[in-house]
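**User:**
Make up any protein.

**Assistant:**
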Amino acid sequence: MGNFKEYWDLVRKYPAFQGGFIWDFVDQALWWPVSEEGTDHVFRFGGDWNEYDPSDGSFDCNGVIAADRSLHPHAYEVRYQYRNILTSYAGNGNIKVYNENFFKDLSQYYISWILEEDGIAVANGTVQNINAGPQQTVTINLGLPKINTDKDLYLTVRYILKAQDGLQNAGDEVAYDQMAINESKSPAFAAGSAAIAGTEVTYVPQFGRAVNENDMGARLNERYKVWLYPEFKVKNFTVKKVEAGYSVVTEYEPVADGAAAVTVAYSILPDGSISGTESMKDAGNLSKAPDLFRFGMQFTMPGKYSVVDFYGKGPWENYCDRNSAALVGRYVQSVNDQYHYGYVRAQESGTHTELRYLRVLDGNGTGLEISANTKFSGSVLPFSMKELDCTLNGTPHRANKTNGQNGAALHSLSLKKLSHENDRMNGKTCVNFELMQMGVGGINSWGTLPLEPYRIHAAEREFHFVIRPVDN
């Protein structure tokens, strides 16, 4: 469902636009009992039984909802774009409400709103009557308090059903919108200066991802292969004592068949924080290299760091071309809940966009915080990229193999045995954060790339970030 918003922008702009088809509504797979640690079943598909089958392997596992009728993260994107009440902020505490319905007014709904400053609620209220006829726009004053702030200020407006209406129950939400009243111009840094005793992490550039179904359909695991698992060999490593701490520069041998020169420069401060700059330069023929999956960094922490605390778009996973439904806010979640096991096959999952900060913590609130000088994206998972990548070991698109090398699982549920769900002390926490990750795509699943704004062309670029210790 990547770029689904763009389709609906056209639907709403051109009355004669007739739309298209979402293919399919539900995954077509079979619940299959297994005796694997961590799961009692997987969802099997055609390629699990034979070398060739009419269903073309996992091709029919492309639903908005899963085979067991649970929601995929992209189902929320569909629900949001299908809403029939649209809201925009008109200033001075006013909102404009557009009733997109052709034949009914909005008398059966009421408004519930909340105003949040940096993700913390500062005001809320309700409006019981909405006097908007079919295809009408009305202006409503919410009576918002006047707040002078340089912090983020977001207004979320929800439309709630007053009484049962057919299959919908009283209290059901039928539409919502979130509007930025004010956006901070500076990164959201949090206080914290305690070192994490006994913990060592290695920061490495990252340009690939565990390919998703659309990536495999476009054979990007072959076309963009040079970015998936490049060998980062250190060319030069320099450490200098400076007045504020240390300057460390790691210069790598050119990657992507020698096309890209990659350098990461760190300033290490006495409080344990690290200011980093990841740079990609042309090493001779960068413009001829294929697009990147992502431009960012990765590192691994011990599994006891099992809590992710972030301020950005959530609560479900979202991507640059699939995040219109997600809401900016502060979310505290379990690392084990970041991967969407509803995907039939293992693949990229768990990313959140428009991050202001991303914290990875233990149960006592101690850990690391990542921030940047711009909004960024990232994920925190109990699996490595290789463990999620079912194209390893020569596995072609829609193949019948169930496992590749390095433990790469074909079925998402098979990953549960690697997650140490009930024993995080023996597990790991894999952190990915990036300036940008390529969109997931959504036009078709057999070759079309994400739309141009959601692609990352091979070019010179920089990513500035800060990693700091957090103590409770």
